Please model this.
Amino acid sequence: MHYDIEADWQLLNTCNYRCDYCFFPGEVLGEKTVRYGAPDEWADAFSATGLTWLLHLTGGEPSAYPGFVDLCAALTRRHFISLNSNLTQTSLADFARRIDPARVSVINAGLHPDERARRRGLEVFNRNLGLLHDAGFSIFVSVVATPQVLAAADEVARLLAVPGLVPVPKLLRGTYRGRHYPDAYEAGEREVFRAMSRKARSAYGDWRAQRSEPPTIDPFDDDSFLSGTPTFRGKACTAGSRFVRIEPQGDVFRCGSDTALQGNILARTFVPHVGPSPCNSGYCFYFCRKYTDVKYTGPAVSIPGPTLASLVPPHFMKRVSTALQRVLRR
Ligand code: SF4
Ligand code: SF4
Model:
């Protein structure tokens, strides 16, 4: 899978779930979804950058976006996608039928056990999980490691009905039920977390080894951050050139913590930075590690620009050519 630039594209704010650890408050998750562009408009606008994109679709719940599968079909004609999903939507059956698994880097299926139980959503989750897995999509299951999940780790693992798939624990970050994580994890919870991480690394060992790079959202080593998340400020990072964050209306930013607008995709004003530059933000979990690591950043993107011939007016080129021929004839 070769691509020039990866994007964390927050396609919409809306979600049908209300997880109490979600970064978005309920009123944002309940917003009416706005479609800022038709599928072909988005696909053409990404192609007009001259770059091949890996678009990580997230939200909210991306599969609830109106015309979600049409959008994925249009994008994957030339680009690649990956997906965060709670696997609740009927659109995923159509996705499994119409989208080529070779154009989908990975699907991160979020388990969210509390909401799943509250909304009787386990059956549909396992149905969609099996469907996508059997259709050949690269997929893993993650679970936000709340104290309740860690206290019932074995029962949580038994919720999954697709053989070989186990939940990968994701680090709880920020304030949850009045306590600040990951600092607030108790010693026993840390032990369970580490055990879940080890089990996940073993269960997905072959799958990970076969991949050319880690999944867009890569929680497999979250146990390394139980004692705190590092700061990357000042480190050379290719966010801005090899990675960007995109908001629902198409506005582009260097990464999660950056607020300097880098153009808009639909308005065709996006200009990537050239090469790495020092991190001027705090921490953009999952992306910092990848885009400060030369193994995955590689050489800077070369931006397709106008050739010398296209900068020079044709009549001038003709005159230069005639003069050159005269000189050569002498
Ligand atoms: S499924 Fe994801 S986006 Fe939806 S409420 Fe839960 S954490 Fe938030
Ligand atoms: S916050 Fe992370 S992704 Fe953003 S510039 Fe800094 S190191 Fe790069």
